[in-house]
What we know:
The chain contains 16 helices and twelve strands. The strands form three sheets. Strands 6-5-4-7-8-9-12 form a seven-stranded parallel beta sheet, with helices on both faces. The chain has a three-stranded parallel beta sheet with strand order 2-1-3, with helices on one face. Helices cover 41% and strands 12% of the residues. The chain folds into two domains: 2-124, no CATH class; 145-406, Rossmann fold, CATH 3.40.50. By secondary structure, the protein is α/β, with parallel strands linked by helices. β7 (260-262), α10 (269-274) and β8 form a beta-alpha-beta unit. α1 packs across α4, α6 (145-156) crosses α9 (247-256) and α8 (205-213) packs parallel to α13 (339-353).
Amino acid sequence: MRGDVRAEGLRRAAGIALHAVWALPAVLLLRLLRPLVLVRAGMIESSRIGHFVGDTSLFLARKSLRQKRPRIVDIFWMPSPPANEQWARMTRRRLFVKGWVRYLVALNRRLPGGAIHHLSSPTMSGSRLEYTALRLSTERFTFTPDEEHRARAWLRRRSWKEGEPFVCLQVRDSAYLARHPLHASSEPGRWAYHDYRDSDINTYAEAVEALIRRGYWVIRMGQLVNQPLSVQHPRVIDYPFMDDKDDLLDIWLSLNCRFFISSGSGIDILPWVYGVPVVFVNALPLIFAATQINHVWVPKHLRWKNSGKPLSLREHGIHGYGEAGDYAAAGIEIQDLSPAEITAAVLELEERVARSWKDSPEGVARQRRYWDVFSAMPGFAGFHDYVHPDARVGADWLRSMGDSFLD
């Protein structure tokens, strides 16, 4: 394996050396032109849908916000294959994406003084401040009329009628990273540090049935998953097991649903960017709550192993880890939400979207107290420069945690 990595590195170096014949003069020319026009070049992180959608949407938003500054031109290259071919097509329609740009990026980074010409990944920065551009800009990638027609035709073939509401359900498990060609690894447990984010799809069955009774279609999302959804109903589509999956549908369904249910995974960046309400259930860590959008967030339960006592809100902030092993090392057990807790959160967002939800005075007071504590957490400002007026933690869950959770 080490030999394969070394061979790949040599191939890349040889490719750069070959293209340096034209790329080196091009880089030097771009630097000479800088007083007239600043050309910046970068790679679009396309192997993971979250970064792919987030980065490109931010680049497009920034471009629209600087229309009065035409002296800046951004160009990109994109590794192949991308996580989603449809999003790649939509990206190429609005951004300048060419394969040869990779050699400009490589040469520019090797020469001193090129930092101003380099574009880095916004979503990899770890700061939600980057998302301010999305809030300020209305520019978004769009579908062609033909793409709209094809997506709606796919639903109509399953007896859906125009105007009938549907909800997307994304429940993370280990299958995608373990089995997808872009990410599968021969190294055992390569992606095990993400295991704390996984959930059992069938703990969502009660919520699915509740939505069916309210007249919704429910479309379970995902490319690769470990097990099917147990609910069988004409208005339930277990999309990962369809023979006619299409990258177009991954995007179109996510952007056109009434609301999106997610346990926290890359594809929920789509409703985030496009303003579709999201209910996050079994989502960790709490400090990463999507405060910039209309959402309801209910995390998994965290308990101290020694005492069985739930972590307080402040302790959630201190122990907001991104790897399963860190929770174990801190002596923290992770417990999934019950089907009833999931259902309560889902129906809360459904009723808020339908404008039928009624907040009690006690519930309003608890939310206010929650946000007072949450916003005072160390690191809050770095992740949450803006709090959407409809950003909430689940009302039933917060009530069930009791007053001690907020102390």
